[in-house]
Structures are given as C-alpha cells and as structure tokens.
Amino acid sequence: MSHDNAHPLQQRLVQQFGATWVTTDTLDDFLAQPGDRVLLLGGDPVRFPEALDVAVVLPELQAAHAGRFAIGVVAREHEDAVARRFGSNRWPSLVFLRDGAYVTTLSGMHDWTDYVAKVGEALAAPIGRAPTIGIPLVSATPASTCH
Fold first, then answer.
1. pTM for this one?
2. How far apart (Å, rounded) are the C-alpha atoms in residues 66 and 48?
3. In which band, very low, low, confident or very high, does the pLDDT at 21 lie, cut at 50, 70 and 90?
4. Which domains does the chain have, with CATH numbers?
5. Residue 66: what are its φ and ψ, rounded to 5°?
6. In sequence order, what DSSP letters do the residues of the chain get, joined into one string?
C-alpha cells in the first residue's frame, strides 16, 4: 500500500523501519496481530509540527525497548476515524495496544529520557478501556422510583 501524499518522515517509518500503513479498512487486521503495537496518529504536520519529531524518534523508542512493539502509521485521511475509535483527541499521539486491546495513549512530544520511561510504563501497563466519548443511555420507560 502506497501513501504518496504522506510526509516523507512517515513514509520513512514504513520503508526503512518496517512500520505498517493503517487505514480504517486495515485497522482490524493490524489489531489481530499478537503482541504490543503502537499506532502513530500524527495529524497535519503543518498544524502540529511535533508530529514530525515523533515520527523521527519512534524507531529510536522502539529500539530502546528491544523492538517490543510493532509500529502502525495511520494514513492521514483515516486519522480522525481511528482517533475517535480510541478516544484520542490530541495530535500527535501514540496509541498503545496489546493483543488487539487498548492499553494507553501518549500525546505530544517529550524529552528523550521521559519518553523512554513513558513508553516503558505503557508497555508494562495492563490493557484497559479506550477513553472514547460515549453517548449516555436513557431508558425509554420512566425511571423506577424504588431507589
């Protein structure tokens, strides 16, 4: 899959570091793979130049953690839908997943030492529930007065 309109630093992740392009159509296949995975949601690099910094350091973070995680680069035109699925609302973000389940999200760029530590914490964290924006459920019948 080619994403010629992607920024060269994102293309570099796929071409040189074995990352996978992820779209809404391929996300479930990416999640079906076992182990730890990280999705890069970069956002518009003109509006969020930190996205390019994250794209540069992501392979270094992967190496600092002995290749414990695979990288997925979410195609720009699919980022909003993928971000909504995982409750991410800040650019850039790294969404950590394990065995197809949500773990946590790290947003923004960090100092190197902090970033390495935060990624280590994410890799050690248990799976959880993505902080998606929910719609409250309302009963169609009047509320019970037995409380």
1. 0.87
2. 28
3. very high
4. 8-124 (3.40.30.10)
5. 50, 40
6. ---TTS-HHHHHHHHHH--EEE-TTTHHHHHHSSSEEEEEE---TTT-THHHHHHHHHHHHHHHTTT-EEEEEE-GGGHHHHHHHTT--SSSEEEEEETTEEEEEEES---HHHHHHHHHHHHHSPP------------SSPPPS--
